[in-house]
Amino acid sequence: MSNKDKIKNLPEFSRPREKMKEKGASNLKKRELLAILLRTGTKDKSVLKLADDLLDKYPSDRLLKATFKELENIKGIGPAKTAQVLAAVELGSRLFKEKEKEEVYINSTADIVKECSNLKDLKKESFVVLCLDGRNRLLRKETVSIGTLNASLVHPREVFKPAIEVSAASVIIVHNHPSGDPEPSREDIKVSNQIVKAGEILGIPVVDHVIIGDRAYSFKDKGQI
Q1: Going by DSSP bridges, is the β-strand pair 216-218/206-212 parallel, antiparallel, or unpaired?
Q2: What local confidence, expressed as pLDDT, does residue 7 receive?
């Protein structure tokens, strides 16, 4: 192995660890990330060359399925490096799955009802705001008030406060009718119109108002928003 292949002989700004510290992990190539996990090379190979060889033998999809026995038998890897690599791969995989599981997208009335299904069984009216980003991903769900819906109880300030805090692109408002009948009352319509107008002023549109009872009533589906 020539001296130029050794990490210590590379310019400091291009060494994987220093590069990560300066620019962040997202700016490193796969070989550099893997080199950090492997830590050291062998007598004949630098850690970067060892990372290259491993990635050539196990591209991304194969590395995800590699077994301990397969990796530890590669020259220069061994059990310690194998454990480090497989632990990092598994951790990344689990974190990605957890993130996917946690993310909720609201694209229909059915999605709204599913997200607020607990409202159906409540004995008191509850008013909930769903804050969405530009891709309709749910950023926050917050109960604004509990009690009979009226203009004094549900103030636009309380509705849009959580939306502003998470920089929401839009909101959906939801409340329940314990009676089971989701048809909107005059007060429901009044409150809905008030909040829609406030959203227009703030630049945070109200994309729907859904009342949950024995079935769901969507103001958007009815052309009222």
Answers
A1: antiparallel
A2: 64
Mark the ranges of the chain whose per-residue pLDDT is less than 50. Answer: 2-3
Output the DSSP codes for 152-197.
Answer: TTS-HHHHHHHHHHTT-SEEEEEEE-TTS--PPPHHHHHHHHHHHH
- Give the separation between CA 159 and CA 131, rounded to whole angstroms: 10
Determine contact, residues 130/171, Cβ cutoff 8 Å.
yes
Residue type, 100: E
Beta-bridge partner residues of 209: 173
> CA 69 to CA 128: how far, in whole Å?
53
Task: Report the SS3 class of residue 87.
Answer: helix
pLDDT value for 148: 66
Provide the pLDDT for residue 19. 87
User: Which is nearest to 122 in space by CA: 48, 217, 211?
Assistant: 211
